[in-house]
Amino acid sequence: MATDLIAAAHAADQWRESYGVAHPGGGTGSLYAQATLYPRVATSQCSARYCAALGDVLTAHGAHRGMTKCDVARHRFVLGKLCLYGIGNP
Q1: C-alpha distances in angstroms, 58 versus 21, 22, 23, 26?
Q2: Cβ(62)–Cβ(72) below 8 Å
Q3: What is the pLDDT of residues 17-26, one digit of tens each?
Q4: Cystine design at 87: which of 48, 54, 80, 82 (Cβ 3.0–4.6 Å)?
């Protein structure tokens, strides 16, 4: 799902760059705009479920951007530390 979300956001961003307006079905091309098109699941920030989903998005985004597996692993490690210590948890 994360890979599809990123691909759709990229397509909407290309539309926005080409036509100067938001894509009619995909918004501005940001991941946030694309994610708002999906149903929301109730979860708190920094829960294990939230961190796992965010890690999946980071992995898919890294693959889309051509990052090495080592770079993606480093980002996931930092995310894990942030979640472990509750950084960003209200």
Answers
A1: 27, 24, 24, 20
A2: yes
A3: 999 999 988 8
A4: 82
